[in-house]
Q: What sequence folds into this?
């Protein structure tokens, strides 16, 4: 069999194995190499919540999907071209995601009787042998045996041999997709080189063995090349959403010249924000791992009271616990940044699976009329921009800001043309000054400027000693007040103050398509890439459709109403049961149409395209 | 570039000149707000003694912050002419931790009650003690919920008949001092509203201690739990029922200082001073002795007391030791990282480890 070379515009591959098989690392390393080659890409890590789910079983399968291309890539791909399965459970869990005619690379050692049983295949059935995979290109490799042979002269234990088998597969895929091994070799030397050089050596040996196996074994009919993508010129790095969020916060601390205090409690999928910020103390950042979610947000409020940027991070269940304290911050009119890396709910839900179902919680989920600002990044790299924006708005408007990321963009990655510090705008902050003269006017903590923003008056400032609290405040003095008219007035002020933020955010832009027409697809948050891809295809297919994506949700951009009303139909796809669509309907009185899905996974391109076609078509039909 | 934030600059610029502190009196710490506790409430005395103690701290008014939770006692910050925050139920220790950790230059005081600290906020209360954040906590214990009008609290004795326990409470109460010892508190003390002089001394001692100072203050709720501490506050019974602890002094009590407490192994014993026992035989108070402090915190409920043996209730500082403070540790780590990290180069951080050029 001779091997041909094929050039493709894009490829989607999926690594799947037991959660102990190192599939996330394998995927990340392939991603880094691919990014360095200049392909555009998007990733989708999927893993069980359990640290070590029962070995060999379907619930224990961990997967990493990656789409890379020579054109713009905005989704991790619906179906994959190649599926790596380290055991039979991985095949069972993932076969549905493989294209007909796609390639399966199966580790035969994971298809022994024990593994087949654990994956609950019927007795005597082995999918590798019963012809059920005849529609695919099936490549069977006894990875364990080949690794053993590659390491025969090294005298390593069974465990270390077993652990390096993912490197064999990685090497094999590097050959298959024509990628260099340098970046991974550097990584292995850096990670293990000092502590255990023999482990580094073994992994590199196995990586190369995989690569050379591809070259010499002639098991593949073709080798695939994906050329560099036509990205905007500049310097790029690969980044996940949570990493970008951390950088956005650090940058905002620097640009406001304030210390940052993160009060938080570990929770999936938000903990990486804590890990990331904990490493950045040299930028004047303090991280406090509190005893619970309530203490986490409360400590951040305490820090804000003292003049720091108070930040708290969590996911939906934790945000629910923080609700009362966030209301306190609304009442105190202090800056506070609340990060919600959403996951599937309700209750504990599916911690490692993505969802966008906390929007109503963000906008309304506190007792009383409790207005705050809600922002949503649209992609992994956009977490940098919106993290920065969250801090800017909180400081400039003395108001809590909730940022809604989600598990999909938090863990997913993309190439990022990172900014230079000099390109970032300064955030101007001024504390209330001291009053030393005996006859100075008394300080009024709830006196406001034209935007209704009060002064940040921090302890340590002479002559402005004052008390704040959660009881209703008298306008101006901040004294406790039960006066009915005052409560009405303060409720209005807090709302108007939030609404005034609209003067300080960009107008809504159309991402793609005209500013008026038949259909507007309105999205928010992590669905951006999929919607953009879908709208691009629909337009190619002749539909008059545009795409707008909200990053500022509460308040909405000032021009949004006009924009929405310039289209005959507005379709709102969301990974929830219809939340933004309800806000849009109630705010603007338009019959916006929902497209919803809650499966713990992002929309696929083809399913969303079909759903939008159906929604739009149905309406047209009912009108005629 | 080492990062000098606005707060670093602020603290330097606003550093109080302690030699030029104005000569203030207690009343200078009264805010312009009317005090709204019930007439006769024990909170009035505590407020007065806190205000009286403030000028003696040697700290500028602007650098003092009172943070409270929810409950009658938690109205306290409104009446102090310092910085203050009346926050939400049970969370004052968490808010104070965030404030003190980010602003170690401030003197931070937590005002809480038995409901606020021992029920809804018990988690934060104990975590504060174990972390040993350098703040002062005044726990107003009246063994009842006052603001919600008379339900039993986690400090109410078993059998308490209240609005929510018409047949008597079946909850076993917390012993706040024993809880504080168990949470590895570094300063554990008790005072009462009806002994203002001693109370003020204890407030000053709380301030002097570096670390979390936990001062329980017996406070009479005249409306819902009047006389709960009468045995200790009534001048007639007090000598028999209360024992004042003093460092290095024997444990003596009684109307004519005629009784004492001695230790038989780890078992405390009440003895009559006279022919058989003299002061030399008694337990000498040592604030740094953790074992003795544990015994003292459980004096009145010591299993070895036996039927009918009533031990006097200890007042004063049961325990005071030095242990590194959380806030200091955090600040030291940040300072170390700033010095060690030297070049806190944001551009290098944004760039990361691996980049590529697109031309």
A:
């Amino acid at each position: 069999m001779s091997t041909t070379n094929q050039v493709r515009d894009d490829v989607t591959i999926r690594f799947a194995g037991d959660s102990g098989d190192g599939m996330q690392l394998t995927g990340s390393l392939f991603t880094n190499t691919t990014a360095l080659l200049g392909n555009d890409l998007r990733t989708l890590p999927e893993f069980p919540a359990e640290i070590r789910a029962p070995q060999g079983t379907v619930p224990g399968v961990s997967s990493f999907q990656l789409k890379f291309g020579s054109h713009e890539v905005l989704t991790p791909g619906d179906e994959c071209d190649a599926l790596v399965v380290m055991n039979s459970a991985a095949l069972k869990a993932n076969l549905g995601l493989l294209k007909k005619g796609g390639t399966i690379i199966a580790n035969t050692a994971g298809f022994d009787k024990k593994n087949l049983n654990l994956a609950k295949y019927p007795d005597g059935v082995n999918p590798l042998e019963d012809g059920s995979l005849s529609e695919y290109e099936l490549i069977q490799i006894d990875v364990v045996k080949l690794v053993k042979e590659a390491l025969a002269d090294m005298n390593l234990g069974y465990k270390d041999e077993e652990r390096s088998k993912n490197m064999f597969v990685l090497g094999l895929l590097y050959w298959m997709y024509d990628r260099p091994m340098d970046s991974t070799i550097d990584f292995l030397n850096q990670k293990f080189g000092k502590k255990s050089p023999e482990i580094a050596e073994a992994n590199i040996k196995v990586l190369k063995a995989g690569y050379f196996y591809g070259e010499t074994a002639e098991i593949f009919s073709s080798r695939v090349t994906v050329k560099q993508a036509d990205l905007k010129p500049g310097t790029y790095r690969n980044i996940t959403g949570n990493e970008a969020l951390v950088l956005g916060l650090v940058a905002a601390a620097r640009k406001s010249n304030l210390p940052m205090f993160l009060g938080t409690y570990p929770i999936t999928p938000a903990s990486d924000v804590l890990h990331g910020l904990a490493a950045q103390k040299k930028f004047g950042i303090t991280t406090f791992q509190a005893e619970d979610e309530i203490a986490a947000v409360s400590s951040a409020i305490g820090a804000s009271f003292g003049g720091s940027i108070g930040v708290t991070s969590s996911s939906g269940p934790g945000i629910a616990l923080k609700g009362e304290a966030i209301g306190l911050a609304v009442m105190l009119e202090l800056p506070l940044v609340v990060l919600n890396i959403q996951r599937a709910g309700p209750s504990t839900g599916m911690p490692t699976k993505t969802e966008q179902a906390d929007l109503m919680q963000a906008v309304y989920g506190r007792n009383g009329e409790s207005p705050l600002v809600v922002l949503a990044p649209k992609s992994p790299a956009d977490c940098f921009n919106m993290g920065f924006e969250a801090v800017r708005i909180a400081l400039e408007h003395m108001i809590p800001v909730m940022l809604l990321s989600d598990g999909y963009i938090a863990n997913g990655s993309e190439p990022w043309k990172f900014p230079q510090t000099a390109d970032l705008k300064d955030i101007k902050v001024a504390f209330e000054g001291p009053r030393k003269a005996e006859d100075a006017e008394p300080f009024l903590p709830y006196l406001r400027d034209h935007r209704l923003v009060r002064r940040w008056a921090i302890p340590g400032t002479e002559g402005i000693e004052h008390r704040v609290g959660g009881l209703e405040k008298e306008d101006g003095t901040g004294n406790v007040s039960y006066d009915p008219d005052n409560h009405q007035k303060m409720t209005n002020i807090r709302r108007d103050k939030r609404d005034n933020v609209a003067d300080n955010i960009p107008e809504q832009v159309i991402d793609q398509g005209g500013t008026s027409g038949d259909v507007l697809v309105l999205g928010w948050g992590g669905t951006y890439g999929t919607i953009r891809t879908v709208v691009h295809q629909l337009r190619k297919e002749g539909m008059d459709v545009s795409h707008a994506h909200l990053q500022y949700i509460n308040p909405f951009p000032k021009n949004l109403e006009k924009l929405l009303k310039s289209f005959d139909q507005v379709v709102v796809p969301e990974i929830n049961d219809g939340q933004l669509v309800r806000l849009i309907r109630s705010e603007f009185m338009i019959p916006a149409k929902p497209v919803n899905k809650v499966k713990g996974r992002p929309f696929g391109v083809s399913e969303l395209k079909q759903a939008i076609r159906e929604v739009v078509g149905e309406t047209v039909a009912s009108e005629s | 570039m080492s990062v000098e934030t606005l707060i670093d600059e602020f603290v330097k610029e606003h550093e109080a000149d302690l030699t030029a502190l104005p000569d203030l009196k207690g009343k200078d710490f009264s805010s312009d707000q009317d005090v709204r506790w019930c007439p006769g409430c024990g909170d009035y005395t505590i407020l007065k003694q806190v205000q009286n103690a403030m000028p003696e701290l040697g700290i500028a008014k602007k650098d003092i912050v009172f943070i409270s939770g929810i409950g009658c006692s938690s109205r306290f910050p409104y009446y102090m002419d310092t910085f203050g925050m009346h926050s939400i139920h049970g969370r004052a220790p968490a808010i104070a931790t965030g404030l003190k950790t980010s602003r170690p230059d401030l003197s931070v005081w937590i005002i809480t009650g038995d409901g606020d600290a021992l029920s809804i906020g018990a988690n934060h209360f104990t975590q504060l003690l174990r972390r040993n954040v350098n703040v002062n906590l005044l726990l107003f214990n009246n063994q009842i919920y006052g603001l919600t009008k008379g339900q039993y609290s986690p400090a109410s004795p078993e059998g308490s008949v209240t609005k929510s326990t018409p047949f008597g409470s079946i909850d076993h109460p917390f012993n706040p001092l024993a809880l504080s010892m168990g949470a590895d508190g570094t300063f554990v003390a008790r005072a009462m509203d009806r002994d203002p002089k001693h109370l003020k001394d204890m407030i000053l001692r709380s301030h002097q201690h570096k670390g979390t100072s936990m001062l329980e203050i017996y406070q009479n709720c005249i409306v819902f739990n009047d006389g709960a501490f009468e045995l200790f506050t009534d001048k007639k019974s007090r000598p028999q029922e209360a024992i004042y602890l003093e460092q290095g002094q024997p444990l003596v009590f009684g109307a004519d200082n005629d009784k004492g407490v001695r230790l038989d192994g780890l078992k405390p014993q009440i003895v009559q001073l006279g022919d058989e026992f003299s002061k030399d035989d008694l337990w000498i108070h040592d604030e740094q002795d953790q074992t003795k402090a544990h015994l003292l915190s459980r004096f009145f409920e010591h299993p070895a007391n036996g039927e009918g043996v009533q031990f006097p209730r200890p007042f004063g500082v049961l325990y005071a030791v030095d242990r590194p403070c959380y806030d200091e540790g955090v600040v030291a780590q940040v300072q170390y990282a700033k010095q060690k990290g030297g070049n806190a180069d944001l551009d290098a951080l944004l760039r990361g480890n691996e980049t590529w050029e697109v031309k």
